[in-house]
Description:
There is one protein chain. This protein is an alpha/beta fold. Helix content is 48%, strand content 15%. The protein is built from 11 helices and 9 strands. Helix 9 (207-220) packs antiparallel against helix 10 (225-239). The longest helix is centred in the middle third of the chain and has 20 residues, at 80-99.
Amino acid sequence: MSTTEPVLRRADSPEGVTTLTMNRGPARNALSIELMGAIMDALSAIAEDETVRVLVIAGAGPAFCAGHDLRELRSHDNDPDFIRLTFESCAQLMQAIVALPQPVIARVHGVATAAGAQLVASCDLAVAADDSRFATPGVNIGLFCSTPMVALSRNVAPKHAMDMLLTGDMIPASRAYEIGLVNRLVPAAELEVATEKLAAQLAAKSAKVLRFGKQGFYHQLPLNLADAYALAAEAMIENMSFDDAAEGIGAFVEKRHPHWKDS
């Protein structure tokens, strides 16, 4: 695969883990129209690929993702249709990550700012290098991070989200971990291995159960308490009919490792 392609797809070891690497390193993987389209195309293919059990999203070069491509936006100042296309494409991309059947892990290094922080927040899990940094700095350039706000406010408490959005300050990885924007911090030299280990842990589980559970999690999230429990109860009833539920319960009782059928 040519290294000039905007997104690189790699099937990793262990089996079932795929990595998508944003490949605009010199531009800090800024989300141009081309890059967002390439990621969307890859996600569409992965959603239909039953051999992919877990997806990792990473960035080439010195940063994970520096947000929207401001040079591209500036060059289309007088083209409202292009501006609309940019932000609508970004919204569709973030929703596609949430809707993807497979769990998605962000592997974060360098900086994740503006729409880059939004990308981290949109992934199901995030592993970050301990020297990485995060920000929603749009307010500093007169462009409030309204679309990053949506994902950010669904990941961290409102006061923490507003702190990032109103100040635009860069926060260290330790703070991102404290407020729940990332799940795990590791030394930069260990980032890839640590992410692979987490991905392998997920890939070893029933793919059907992970997909079913991810869908249920996001469906119940906006519901009131009673409706969420009603949905979850129906989900448990359906889940009990899975072959893998019978296998998993049997394996637990018999004190052996389960052999998943993904059914």
